[in-house]
TrEMBL record:
InterPro entries: Biotin_BS, Biotin_lipoyl, Carboxylase_cons_dom, PCB-like. It comes from the Eukaryota. The keyword Chloroplast does not apply. Signal peptide: none annotated. It comes from Parnassius apollo. Coiled coil: none annotated. Residues 250-325 form the Lipoyl-binding domain. GO terms for molecular function: pyruvate carboxylase activity. Pathway: Carbohydrate biosynthesis; gluconeogenesis. This is (apollo) hypothetical protein.
Length: 325
């Protein structure tokens, strides 16, 4: 992305979304397929009725595009299999009318196939919305995170799950918001020098020197670095060293008794337990990846024989969620 690209006239990806979409694609394991994601974006847009793409409607198109690439689905297959697919939550809510009625109306019969008996929102979505009590929200947040600011409250109001995850990381590691994106997500490499401005006029110069090969009994390694030219070291727990290799079972392709993860993500909510009776299309679990939520639905009616996931577990595509009999 070092120059302009004329294919924007075809896919109509908004400039502000372009880099975010690429970052999401890499995070979901679709980095090498970004060209396919861009082509799918155009198809997804047309499937949804060639909508005006601006936050949050552009996110709906992007989520559907990545869902299509992840599951190797064409626009025609989306239309034909809409009743049986577990679509991203943003797509379902868009079709319900959660962000309003698009110019030209909703795409039919896609909308009816996806929603089935789900409720529809008539009129302006916010009209029936109760006012948000920011004072109560701040009070609730302070029970777990005593140092929340007004900015934090705004973040929690818009992205509750993402904000809570960030607050937990901040409590554990400190003011990580001052780190650049690459350092925050990947970490520095040996010999790399980074600058961290923690307040106006106060910048820390950090150079990573080495990591000890030997590990302590507590599972920690000593990390050596320079801080403003001074040699320092700190013991950091090696999270990978204490983990046992666990291979999560995959759902067998074509086996309608097994429900697999439609794309990589973290388990937010499990809505069923062993022995529960479910109807076709009933929510089984909610997954989250890069602010994109996915409601996994039962492909058929039956009884939950086993549940293979736990809350907070990270899944890869096609990892087994549950078995229905």
């Amino acid at each position: 992305m070092k120059s302009g690209n004329a294919d924007v006239y075809m896919n109509e990806i908004p400039g502000g979304q372009y880099t975010n979409l690429q970052f999401q694609a890499f995070s979901l394991g679709l980095g090498s397929q970004f060209e396919e994601v861009k082509k799918a974006y155009r198809e997804a847009n047309l499937l949804l009725g060639d909508i005006i793409k601006v936050t949050p409607s552009s996110k709906v198109v992007g989520d559907l595009a990545q869902f299509m690439v992840q599951n190797k689905l064409t626009a025609k297959e989306i239309e034909e299999r809409a009743e049986d697919l577990s679509f991203p939550k943003s797509v379902v809510e868009f079709l319900q009318g959660a962000i309003g009625i698009p110019y030209g109306g909703f795409p039919e019969p896609l909308r009816s196939k996806v929603l089935k008996d789900m409720p529809r929102i008539e009129g302006r979505p916010g009209q029936e919305l109760l006012p948000l009590d920011f004072d109560k929200l701040k009070k609730d947040l302070m029970e777990s995170f005593p140092d929340v600011s007004d900015h934090d409250v705004m973040s929690a109001a818009m992205y509750p799950q993402v904000a809570n995850d960030f607050f937990r990381i901040r409590d554990k590691y400190g003011p990580v918001k001052h780190l650049d994106t690459k350092t925050f997500l990947v970490g520095p490499t040996i010999g790399e020098r980074i600058e961290v401005t923690i307040e106006r006029g106060k910048t820390l110069d950090i150079k990573i020197l080495a990591v000890s090969e030997e590990m302590t009994a507590a599972g920690e390694r000593e990390v050596f670095f320079e801080l403003n030219g001074q040699l320092r070291s700190v013991f950091i727990r090696d999270e990978n060293a204490s983990k046992e290799m666990k291979i999560h079972p995959k759902a067998v392709k074509g086996n309608k008794d097994q429900v697999g993860a439609p794309m990589p993500g973290t388990v937010l909510t499990i809505k069923v337990k062993e022995g529960d009776k479910v109807d076709k299309g009933q929510p089984i679990a909610v997954l989250s990846a890069m602010k994109m939520e996915m409601i996994v639905q039962a492909p058929r009616a039956g009884t939950i024989k086993s549940v293979s996931i736990t809350n907070g577990q990270k899944l890869e595509g096609d990892d087994l969620i549950c078995t229905i009999e």
